Every structure is written in C-alpha cells, then in structure tokens.
Amino acid sequence: MSGPKTQKTIDLLGNAQEPLEESVLVHLSNLTREEQQSLEATWPSIPLDKRRRMLSLMSEQAEEDVQLDFTAVFRRGLQDPDESVRRLSVDGLWEDEAITLIRPFLTMLRSDPSPLVRASAATALARFILQGELGYLTDERTHEILNTLMAIIADATLPIAIRRRAVEAIAYSSDERVQKIIARAYEDASEEMRLSALFAMGRSADDYWCGVVRAELANPNPAFRFEAVRAAGELADPKAVERLIVLLTDADPEVRQMSIWALGQIGGPHAMKALRLIGQSKNTTLRRLARDSIAELSLRDEITPGFVIESELVDEDEILDEDGFLREVDFPDDDEAFFEDEDEDDE
Fold this sequence. Notes:
mainly alpha
C-alpha cells in the first residue's frame, strides 16, 4: 500500500502533536526501499508511546489480515533503545523465517539488557531450530543456535523468564541432549520452568513423554492441566483421549477449549464422537472450536462429516445437559472473552 498515503502516514507518526490513528497503519504495509529510508529518518522523532502503540496495533492487524506485511517496521524496531519496542518488534516478526534474522536474535538473546527481550529472542529462535531439523539451515548455523540456547539454559544466574523460553525453543531439536534438559526442567523448583518443560514435551514429538503428560492431566493446578492437554494433543497420544473427554467439563475455560483442540489433533472414534457432541453445544465458542476440529479431522482422516460414530467412552447424557450445555459447568462469559471478537451466544 505504498504511495503518497504512506509518506503522509510516516509524517504523521513523526508529528508529536498528531494522535495515532489505527486506520492509517495499513499504509505502512509492504514498504518500498525508499519508504523504508523515509521511516528510518523519521523514527527518532516518533514519540515513545506512539512507537509502542503502533507496533502493538500492527501485530493485531497482521494477525487479522494476512495480506498486511509490517516486516520492515518490525525490523526497524529491533534497534530501538526502548525495551518494550524491541520486544514488540521481535514478537511481531513471528512469521518471518528469513535467515537474516538469526544473527540479530542471537545477539539479543546473548546480550540484550532486558530479560523480556532476551526471552522473546529465545522464543523466536525456536522456528530456526525447526528449520535446521528440516534441513533448511546448514549444520553449522543450526549448531550455533542450539549451543547458544543450551548455554542460556545452563546459566543458573540468568532469570527463569529467559531460561524457560530457551528450554521451549530447543524442544524442536532431535539432539540427544534435549531429553535430559527437558527432564531437568521438569524437576526444577520453579513452577514456571516445570510448565515450560510440559510445553517442551509436547513440542518434542517424543513419545517418551506420553506417560508424564497423561499424569499431569490430573494435576490440581489448571495451568499444568492446560499445558498437559496441549502436550497430549501435540504428541497425538491416543491413550490420553479418555481423560481429555473428562476435561471437556473442566472448571477452567481454557482447559476446556484446549481439550477440544487436543482431541482434534489425536482423532479416533471416541474423540470424534465427543467433538460432535460439543459441536451441538449452546456455547458459541466451544461449538465453533469443536466444529473446526471436526473439519480438520475429516479432512485429514477422510471421514465423511455426517458419519455417525459409536463410542463406548462417550455418553451424550454425561457431556450435554438437557439444554445443550456441558454438564457440571456453568458457562459465564469467560469462554467468550477468550476470543474478543466472538459472536454472541445463541438464545
């Protein structure tokens, strides 16, 4: 969306007297080289609060509209003196897999003065670990990333906030040291680190962790149940299905929602029947999530959408009440608030 409107938008950003209008940010998508130079010259004069809000809004807009590309703006933000701007810029580049980002992310992870920026850099490097596993990076480059992350994990003087994200990032690696690193993280005294260990177990796609993950599905702490549910889905563990069906009526709304996703990842007749029942729920969010999972399963497993599936594990009367809601759970607005733009519930 280049042209006169782009330059006008850049000029408005640099004017401290002009408020930031969300609607004009689309003109900063897909900047030309000349427009990038103009933004570079204007950047220092953009007020800090405006830079922060601009990057935050751009992240939201880019998620809603895949045609928008604010890469040039986020890349400029990596060099900003403000830690919030740098962190927002790293996070905003979550879809950018260009290898030219590896060096700045490694530099940030090793030496940025902000723990939050370093944690975001660790998270961002995860996708390059995956690229290395898939053969898209040289062994030398992959090993540099992996060894840097491992050094961060081993440095007990660093904040947990950084080290836990490094544990999550290396989970994509098939390096034989990773399993032991995840095991140590799972035994850590820090709850945050143990949560990251569960996350890493799922990301690793290593069946070795299935038993641990299934045990954590019964953890009294909803944060651990949530991560265990996600990990069970990532591991596609069929032995977790029975417990996941029970968690469809969990007291925690995020656990319920993640259980629907996990059942969709695992599949099978029991999971499909449970999803079909949730797809009849009067709760808008859960119904939509269930139908999305059914559609994905149908496409992946070539199941006819209307096919009736029998399952001795799933009893409709145990999941839905006579009004079409999940039993033993009073659904306030919390499920809807999880998706800010969700449609209103059915009458």
